[in-house]
Specification:
Layout: E1 2-5, E2 11-21, H1 28-38, E3 48-53, E4 59-63, H2 76-86, E5 94-100, E6 105-109, H3 120-126, H4 131-143, E7 152-158, H5 162-173, E8 178-183, H6 186-191, E9 193-201, H7 205-214, H8 218-231, H9 238-251, H10 275-287, H11 292-297, E10 322-329, E11 332-341, E12 344-352, H12 359-374, E13 382-392, E14 399-402
Parallel strand pairs: 6-7, 7-8
Antiparallel strand pairs: 1-14, 2-13, 3-4, 3-12, 5-6, 5-9, 10-11, 11-12
Length: about 400
């Protein structure tokens, strides 16, 4: 007789940990109630405020949101937007110095490099090239075959910022060197050039943009706005920048009628924007990957840039959860950006430009603003729960047993 026996496939029970995103305790109604209290804080002096749910674009709270206010350095978000709109993120700027073919002359072919510094001490500290260093190298080359160093230098230049040229002239005058500058076209300059002495290239546009947002560099922001305006065909001046900003907002379907632009840095007290406009701009940026460099360049609460020293004492629960552009003028404290709130993200703009024009008032306004934002800020917590999975093992081979 023959018996057939088959192994039964057992079920192996495995217990795994499966991540589950926690729900946010800070839903729009909670965020709204926090901002309703924020606008009543006496330290903020009836600020202009706008709050948007980043996932839907819905405006969930506003106060004086269409009031034209002084943005301070929050305006740099517009400069950054214009920069990415009209300049290539990988673009760099080059400046070269040549020994001139004329006696005692040098040629500087600038590239309107916003990164090059006219202050040598600043350049050394920030690892930039300075115009003084560039010029001194060129003058040293001229004097290399002279018994008596020349004290009068003819400079032929192109594409150098006026403030840089003035600073260079003053720098050399302090060292007993008289600089006689003559502006020429790039081609004219090359025709007057001999051997190349020195060359300097800037970081990429994307890196320059990140720097001026993170550290609120006024000169860089203003120059990049001018360069974007030039590329847009509107001219490298105040009027050109204003026109460029208006055009960009129009293209983004944001009403530009309530802005007044006097520079690209936010330093002018005549600049005006509304919190509603800035919030809408931040929402458009949030939706378009092309502008991700802007979000990445924003200071992070208690971690980087102009927010590095904030939140640590006043609102430690919000460290690392706020990415925003700061702004400060006498009588103005502003902050605009993004805040993480569990499984949500909010876009916020607060412009408090009616506070007392004192350092202590600004400090109190910043601390108050940070404390209120901390009431919304919350990390996204990943909870791990066990999951039961049944696994069927392979069936064993049949066994044939024969008996006689």
């Amino acid at each position: 007789m023959t018996f057939i026996r088959k192994c039964v496939a057992p079920l192996l029970v495995l217990s795994l940990l499966t991540p589950l995103h926690s729900a946010s305790a800070f839903d729009p109604s909670t965020a709204t109630s926090v901002f309703a209290r924020l606008i009543k804080a006496p330290e903020l002096g009836n600020p202009s405020v706008s709050l948007i749910d980043a996932s839907t674009g819905e405006v969930i709270f506003e106060n004086s949101a269409y009031s034209e206010r002084k943005p301070a350095s929050v305006l740099k978000v517009l400069s950054a937007t214009a920069t990415l709109k009209y300049l290539e993120p990988t673009q760099t700027f080059t400046t070269k110095a040549y020994r001139g073919i004329e006696n005692s002359s040098i040629v500087i072919a600038g590239g309107l490099d916003p990164w090059i510094s006219y202050k040598h001490t600043e350049a050394v500290k920030m690892k930039r090239t300075s115009l003084p260093r560039l010029a001194l190298n060129a003058i040293a080359a001229i004097n290399s075959d002279r018994t008596i160093p020349t004290r009068n230098i003819k400079l032929y230049y192109s594409d150098i910022y006026g403030s840089d040229l003035s600073a260079l002239t003053s720098f050399l005058k302090g060292r007993g060197i008289r600089l006689v500058p003559t502006r020429v076209t790039r081609n004219e300059g090359l025709a007057l050039s001999g051997a190349e002495i020195f060359a300097s290239s800037s970081p990429t546009v994307a890196k320059i943009l990140s720097f001026f947002l993170t550290w609120s560099d006024n000169t860089l922001a203003d120059r990049m706005a001018q360069l974007a305006s030039l590329a847009a065909g509107n001219g490298r001046n105040e009027e050109g920048v204003a026109t460029t900003f208006q055009e960009i907002l129009g293209q983004m379907e944001i009403d530009p009628s309530k802005i007044v632009i006097k520079d690209g840095s936010g330093l002018s007290r005549q600049n005006r924007v509304t919190s509603h406009l800035v919030a809408q701009l931040l929402y458009k940026i949030h939706q378009d990957p092309v502008f991700s460099v802007i979000i990445d360049g924003l200071p992070v609460s208690g971690v980087t840039g102009t927010l590095k020293e904030r939140y640590i004492e006043s609102a430690p629960d919000a460290i690392g959860l706020v990415k925003a552009k700061t702004g400060t003028l006498n009588g103005t404290v502003s902050l605009a950006g993004y805040i993480e709130s569990g499984d949500r993200e909010y876009i916020f703009v607060v412009i408090a430009d009616k506070i007392s024009r004192s350092y202590s008032a600004s400090e109190k306004a910043r601390a108050t603003l940070d404390k209120y934002l901390a009431k919304i800020a919350s990390p996204l917590i990943i909870e791990e729960i066990p999951a039961i999975i049944e696994v069927e093992l392979p069936i064993a081979e049949s066994i044939s047993v024969t008996t006689i």
